[in-house]
Amino acid sequence: MKKLRILASILCAFSSHINGASLVINGDFESGNTVFSSQYSYAPASNTTEGEYTVRTDPENWNNLFAATPDHTSGVGNMLVVNGATTGNPYFWQEIVPVSSFTGYDFSAWISTAVAGGPADLYVEINGVLVGSLFTAPDLPGTWENWSEQWMSGSATMADIRIYNSDTSTFPNDFYVDDISFMAAVPIPAAAWLFGSGLLGLVGVAMRKAT
């Protein structure tokens, strides 16, 4: 049985995907309002109208109607705080990153709702093309939910990532964003797959002998 457990552990290691570092810089917003771009208006002190954003630890002090939610990363750091736009179709976050052609990438972000009663509907475009489908922010303020999509680069060597909110309600369509990441999903080399398949056979034989 000890050998069986060792074989199973090795097989699990070979059956996993290895993710590289995120290509998004300052995805946790700990460096403040830097690196990324936005078509929303930056309002560092307080929120006075729709279509504004800030980066801070205390969203309630930016807009007293917003839930006092700790950031997702550490509970004491920065997050992107957004008062959804009600006209046009501006993106609230954008970053352009280099990518490898013909490679799969994983996009991920954590989303929370600022005010109950009308969660935002978010979507991401890469190089002008919709990726995945709409993501509706959680109904309950004070909670974080993960949003993830997959993208294939094709012949592209750059990824222009833009995130939008399709909800143009005047109130409420406000939300928080944290820990945006974009990383290549590195597949297991063919030789490793073959070795893993061999281990799978050994595990199966061992299991049959153990019963």
Word description of this protein:
The protein is of the alpha+beta class and 211 residues long. The protein is 18% helix and 36% strand. Helix 1 runs antiparallel to helix 3 (190-210).
Biggest beta sheet summary: 7 strands, mixed
Number of helices: 3
**Beta-strand content estimate:** 35-45%
Task: Give the overall shape, derived from the CA principal axes.
Answer: globular
- How many individual β-strands? 11
- Structure classification: alpha+beta
Question: What is the succession of H and E elements?
Answer: HEEEHEEEEEEEEH
Low-confidence residue ranges: 1-18, 188-200, 202-208
Mean pLDDT over all positions: 85
Oligomerization category of the chains in this entry:
single chain
Which range best describes the helical content: under 10%, 10-25%, 25-40%, 40-55%, 55-70% or over 70%? 10-25%
Describe the structure in brief.
With 211 residues, this protein is α+β, with helices and mostly antiparallel strands.
Features:
211 residues, alpha+beta, 7-stranded mixed β-sheet, 3 helices, 11 strands, disordered N terminus
Task: Set out the fold topology.
Elements: H1 2-15, E1 18-19, E2 41-42, E3 52-56, H2 59-62, E4 79-83, E5 91-98, E6 104-113, E7 121-126, E8 129-136, E9 145-152, E10 158-165, E11 174-186, H3 190-210
Parallel strand pairs: 2-3
Antiparallel strand pairs: 1-11, 3-4, 4-11, 5-10, 6-9, 6-11, 7-8, 7-10
